[in-house]
Sequence to fold (427 residues):
Amino acid sequence: MNRFVVALVVALVLLGAGVAGLSVHHRREADRRLAEAEVQAAVTAEISPPPDVTAEAVVERNLTFDKVMEKNGVDKETAYQMIQAARPLFKFRRLTAGNKLVLVSSAQGTLRSVRYHIDNEHELYIGRNENGQGFQAEIKEIPSKLEVTGVGGPINGSLFEGVMDAGEQPQLAMEIADIFRWDLDFYTDPRPGDTFRVVVEKRQYENGQPSTYGRILAVEYNNAGHVYQAVLFHDPQGRPAYYAGDGKSLQKAFLRSPLKFAARISSHFSRSRFHPILKIYRPHLGTDYAAPTGTPVQSIASGRVVFAGRNGGGGNTVKILHSNGYETYYMHLSRILVHNGQHVDQGQRVGLVGMTGLATGPHLDFRLQQRGKFVNFERLKLPPALPVAKKDWSEFATERDRLVAIFPSPNTGTTVAKASNAVTTGN
Fold:
C-alpha cells in the first residue's frame, strides 16, 4: 500500500512538471512571436513612405506655366521637362486665368504629377515615368453623368434670382433669356408672381466641380398670365430650332432688343424732342437704352457692316445693312468690336455701351431705317420665321408632349431628375 502511494505521488509530481514545462514552452513561443511582430512593425514603419502632399494653385492673369510652377516651388528644369512632355497635346499659351492646377509631391518635396483643369470636360495630366527620370502627359476626360432634369420656380425679382432660388446657376437664366429674346425683355418684362419651367440637360461631375448645362429641350415662362413656351426641334433643313407649342417658330427677322438684357428706355422715338445738350427741339429718330458703360451691344439681325467709326455727335457708331432694305445704327459706343465690310450674325456683339459724342450719360442710341426712312423700332411688328413643316407635325407633337410631361409644378422650385435618361462619360 505504501508502495502504491509513493508511486502515485511520484506520478503526480512528474505530471505537474510536464504541465509546467508545456506552459513555459507556450509562453516562450508567444513571447517570440510578439517580438517578431514588433520587429516587423518597426521595419515596416521604416520602409513605408509618408503620404504625398497635394497642393492647389490658381492660374493668375498673364502668368505662364513655368511661372506658376516657380511660384509653387518647382525648379525651372522640372517645369521645362513637363512642358516638353505635354507639348504634343497641349499649348501652354492657352492657360486660362482662374483655372486650377493640382500639384502632387512626395514628403521630401519631389514633384510627382500636375493636373491642369482645361475645361469642364477635360484635364491635362503630367506625371513621372515609371523610372522616375522624366514625364509623360495625357489629356483625360473628367468622368461625368448627363441627366435630363426638370426645373421650375417663381420669379420674385429677376429671372436670374428665380433661377438661383431654384438652386441652379446663372448660366441657365442666360440661356432661357436667349431662347425668348425675340419675345421677352428680361430686364423690363418680369412681374412678381411670374413662373418659369425648363427641361434641360444637366451634367454632373464626379470630381465635385459645379454642374454645367447642355441643351435646353423645353422651356416655359408665364409672364403675368401670358404663357410663352419653346420646344427644341429641327427646321426643314434639319438644323436645331425652337418652336412654340403650336408649332410657330420663335425666331424672327429681328431681335426685340439690341441689348441681351435690355436696359431702361430713357428716350423714345420722337419727331420733336428737347435735346438735353443742344437745348433745342429736334427729331430723335431712335430709341435710347440707358445702360452701364461696357454693356454688350448685339446686332438685331444678320447683315454686313457698312460703317464702323467715329460719327460726329453720334460718337462711335456701327451701321449694319440687312436684307429687305433695313439698316440699323448703334451709337455712342465706348468700343467698336467689328470693322467695315464684316458679316455679322443675329445676336453677335458689335460694340459696348458708352457715352461718346453728344451724350449726358452712358446709353445706346439705336436706330432703324427701312428703305431710307427711319421707323419706330418699338412699334415694329417682327415677322417670324417658318413654322414646323406639315410633314414633321406628328413628330413635333410627340416630342413636345414628352418634354412638357417632365415640367415640374410651376411654383415648387423643385428639381426632378429623370435618371432613366442618364448617360455616363469619362474614364
Remarks:
- The helical segments are 2-47, 65-71, 76-86, 159-165, 170-179, 393-404.
- The domain at 145-251+386-425 is CATH 3.10.450.350 (Nuclear Transport Factor 2; Chain: A,).
- The chain has three domains: 53-141, 145-251+386-425, 264-379.
- The longest helix spans residues 2-47.
